[in-house]
Amino acid sequence: MNGFLTAMRNTVEDLYGHVHRVGRLSVALGEVLGLGETQLRNLATAGVFHDVGKIHIDPAILSKPGPLAGHEVTEIRKHPELGYAMAVDHLDPEVALTILHHHERWDGGGYPHGLTGEEIPRLARVVLVADAFDAITSERSYQPAMPVDYAIAEIVSCSGSQFDPEVVEALLVLASRDFSDVFGSAELF
After folding, report:
1. What is the full per-residue pLDDT of the chain (189 aa) written as tens digits?
2. In the chain, where the domains are located
3. 163, β-bridge pairs
4. What is the 3-state secondary structure (H, E, C) of 122-150?
5. Which of 54, 53, 41 is nearest to 94 (CA)?
């Protein structure tokens, strides 16, 4: 899977940094949720590889500075299934399923399968919150980085619709501490 990490580093600006930040935050959320060592290890792996399918998406779409056209959204939405296909024979099945379902929404409005609530694998629900937090607080081609307080408020406002309320509560526990050490510079892999 190291080749996949190299490919992510070369696909679009900051994809490599993004996936490592998501991995670290996913593990921190998992610790608050009381997950065991195996699940924490799987969270780290799933966080780092959740967007691996994006290496098969046109970099011009991934780095587009404005809103995506309908066909571009359709293309982007393929990345969980592409990532799953890449991971299923190489990673723990729980990690592969997390990659596949990391864009499923608590209310069923996500993709690729429209799963709801606890139908969504627990680790995927954790990665979704970590992914959203990093997307909001990081500079993107289509938006500036927003403050941490703004990101937390956005995620809280979507608790029970987009996000698992239990995972949102774990984020609030982390936010009540100084969780800047979660985002250190060390790579997970």
Report:
1. 666 666 656 666 677 788 999 999 999 999 999 999 999 999 999 999 999 999 899 989 988 888 899 999 999 999 999 999 999 999 999 999 999 999 999 999 999 999 999 999 999 999 999 999 999 998 877 778 899 999 999 999 999 999 999 999 999 999 988 766 676 555 555
2. 2-183
3. 159
4. HHHHHHHHHHHHHHHHCCECCECCCCHHH
5. 41
Sign of the CA dihedral running 136, 137, 138, 140: positive
Residue 180's identity, in one-letter code, is: S
> How many other CB atoms are found less than 10 A from the CB of residue 142?
10
Is residue 185 within a helix (H) or strand (E), and if so which, with residue range?
A: none
Of 51, 70, 42, 68, nearest in space to 12 by CA: 51
Superfamily per CATH, domain 2-183: Hypothetical protein af1432 (1.10.3210.10)
Beta-carbon neighbour count of residue 157 at 10 Å?
A: 12
What pLDDT does 184 receive? 56
Closest CA to 99 of 26, 156, 9, 12: 26
